[in-house]
Amino acid sequence: MTSKEVALEKCDGANGTTSIGGSSVKLRRELGLFSAVNLILGVMIGSGIFVSPSSALEHSGSVGLCLIIWTVSGIISLLGALSFAELGTVLGKSGAEYSYFQEAFGNIHKYWGPLPSFICAWIYVVILRPAEVAIIVMTFAEYAIQPFTPDLEPNYKDTAIKLTSLAALFVMTYINITSVKLFVKVQNIFGICKVFACLIVIGGGIYEISKGNTYNLSKGFEGSTTSPGGIALALYSGLWAYDGWNSVTVVTEEIINPGVNVPLSISIAVPLITGLYVFMNVAYMTVLSYAEMTSVPAVAVAFGARVLGPAAFLIPLGVAIATFGCAMSVQFGVTRVCYTAARGGHMLEVFSYVNLKRLTPAPAVALQALLTSVFILVGNIRTLIEFASWFLWFFYGLAMVALLVLRRTQADKPRPYRVPTLVPCFVLVVAIFLSILPIVHDPSVKYLMAIGFIVLGVGVYTVFVYYRKTPTAFLRKFTFLTQVLFESVPPNDHQD
Fold first, then answer.
1. Are the C-beta atoms of residues 140 and 165 closer than 8 Å to each other?
2. How large is the average pLDDT for residues 41-65?
3. Alpha helices (H) in 344-443, listed in sequence order
4. Euclidean distance between CA atoms 62 and 336, whole angstroms
5. d(CA 425, CA 83)
6. What confidence tier does 145 reach under pLDDT thresholds 50, 70, 90?
7. How far apart are CA 204 and CA 439, in angstroms?
8. If exposure means fewest CB atoms within 10 Å of the residue's CB, which of 14, 125, 157, 453 is most exposed?
9. Phi/psi at 253 (nearest 5 deg)?
10. Is residue 143 exposed (0-12), middle (13-18) or buried (19+ Cβ within 10 Å)?
11. How far apart, in whole angstroms, are the C-alpha atoms of residue 72 and residue 483?
12. pTM of the full predicted structure?
């Protein structure tokens, strides 16, 4: 019998747990406070703040109002993250919204109760996050090859970007399959580099202000929009740049001492990012005029070319580092949603299996790599994530409802961390507002696409989850092949 066959024999079919030499096989708690903070930094700081932070300025109409929008967006993100911290610590499960919906609504009705959880997993795992990773990694590739392909024809450049994207995807997939410790080490290094890149921009802004370059800033609130719709769209743009504040609750089961480290990491990371974002925008608006900010393809690159001189290459390098780290962290998080959904019976069971040696959800990581590869090869997928914020805030709002429901249905359950009731209520109001506003302000076919994805998900849920109409023989072979290929077995579901 081969080593792989021995590994598969160790699976105990009676209780669904696995052990090697008396120790259970499952995901381990390997992320401490510093790594949890870096995970949030890794997901939140992507290309947006470097490439296209101008949307909030365009909608707000003035420097002063734009800075207020960035500050308010950071505060709303912090309040939402702290609400998720309560949910994460009271339930102690990975998967964020998926787990919260399952716990709050799963037992309400046999059919309708588990449906929100499934739709959440369906949208995140199959569509939204793979498409998001594809776009982020393609942005990385564009900036990574920029110094080497200045005169390349557009068609050849597109091919080079796709090939570089696939290579980068292979590297981050290898990291996420190989070891959580390796991911943590790489993520921590990239997190420090990201913050350093942000500080370079802020330092350049301080230097320009110290020289007396304050003409653009002196305009203050001149030209501010008075339209509630304009203010709301500016807020929408700001909040999109802050997305990822819930990332630490996606991996709660891998956080050391989550009752302390989950809320503490959020309390450190989100205000830190808010400060970086606000002061980076001050730096941009010190150097670039309103017209330049809203027209250049990459704001930070234009800023660097004007301020940093020979060191301007640091900005494209910073964008490349930020995007690679962000894509790797998003992939890390969504594999845990897939893993948790598979444990809950809402994805193929094999995607909940754990590699025997590395203790990583290798099949779930491989699935995300495959889906992301498809989106990279398709290329033109920006329409898919144009309504991403709509989906995100719809799910965030439903998570606030889940928090309020669980406070009633599980009132006696110990809560290591608890936010004031006013906080989730406020975030719920913001979520409702942000879910309705885009449809009213800009009715578009993309929202019909969003509804179409949901309807398709309901169909998949009804046939394959509720009625369990699955090709059993094929799935048995697929499961065995996947187990052998990734040396994976069912995890022990008992938590530390």
1. yes
2. 84
3. 362-378, 382-386, 388-409, 422-441
4. 41
5. 10
6. confident
7. 39
8. 14
9. -70, -10
10. buried
11. 48
12. 0.87
